[in-house]
Design a protein that fits this description.
Elements lengths: L10 E3 L2 H8 L4 H11 L4 E3 L10
Parallel strand pairs: 1-2
Helix pairs in contact: 1-2
């Protein structure tokens, strides 16, 4: 399943690669996915171990 196919209000775990691909500009799909989480369309969750500490 692609990120764009996730149904509204779905709870999803966000792994480190999603952040890496978003912040480095490698994947527009990852950026759209994070924007959906920010807009409240998806319930994105992660852990502090996943969040990059230096950019």
């Amino acid at each position: 399943m692609r990120f764009d196919e996730l149904p509204m209000a779905e709870a999803v775990f966000i792994d480190a690669n999603i952040f890496v691909y978003h912040f480095t500009g490698i994947s527009e799909e990852c950026s759209r996915f994070l924007k959906r989480c920010e807009a409240g369309e998806l319930r994105g969750v992660t852990t502090v171990n996943v969040i990059p500490v230096r950019w």
